[in-house]
Design a protein that fits this description.
Layout: H1 8-13, H2 19-31, E1 35-37, H3 47-55, E2 75-77, E3 79-82, E4 85-87, H4 90-107, E5 111-113, E6 125-128
Antiparallel strand pairs: 1-3, 2-6, 3-4, 5-6
Helix pairs in contact: 2-4
C-alpha cells in the first residue's frame, strides 16, 4: 500500500485536533486501499460550526447544550476518494475506517468508529476514547 497521501487541504482541516488523530490519519493513509481526505468541517469545530451542522440535520449535537467531540478536538471525519471524486458510500467509508482501526491498533491509540454507533451509523467518523 502507501499509494496515497493526505493533501495540504486535509492537513489544514486537522488544525486544532488532538495530535493522536493527526498521527492516526497519517498512518491510515499509508495503510488504506481507498484514498481519503478530511472535509471542511471534519476536524475542529467552533460552537457556530457545530450549531450550523445541527440546524442542517447533519449532527445530533447542537454545539451548546450537547457538545460534539469535534469541538473538543477529539474527533475526525473523513470522506473516501474513489473514481476521481469524493464518495460517501458505506462500502468506501468502511474500507477507510478499517485503515484507521488498523492504525489505531498499531499505534496503541483507542478510538471508536461511528459506523458502529448504536444510535445512528456515522460512517465517516472516528473519535478518541480515553
Amino acid at each position: 500500500m502507501g499509494d496515497f497521501s493526505l493533501s495540504v487541504r486535509s492537513h489544514d482541516q486537522m488544525i486544532g485536533i488532538d495530535d493522536r488523530l493527526i498521527l492516526l490519519a497519517n498512518h491510515a493513509i499509508d495503510l488504506t486501499r481507498v484514498d481519503f481526505g478530511v472535509p471542511e468541517t471534519g476536524g475542529f469545530r467552533t460552537k457556530e460550526d457545530q450549531a450550523l451542522l445541527y440546524r442542517q440535520n447533519k449532527s445530533n449535537c447542537d454545539g451548546v447544550s450537547k457538545l460534539s467531540n469535534h469541538q473538543k478536538g477529539r474527533a475526525l471525519d473523513f470522506y473516501a476518494y474513489a473514481d476521481g471524486k469524493a464518495s460517501w458510500q458505506k462500502e468506501h467509508l468502511s474500507q477507510v475506517a478499517a485503515a484507521f482501526l488498523q492504525a489505531a491498533i498499531e499505534l496503541k491509540i483507542n478510538i471508536r468508529w461511528g459506523g458502529l454507533f448504536r444510535s445512528f451509523a456515522d460512517f465517516p467518523h472516528i473519535e478518541l476514547v480515553d
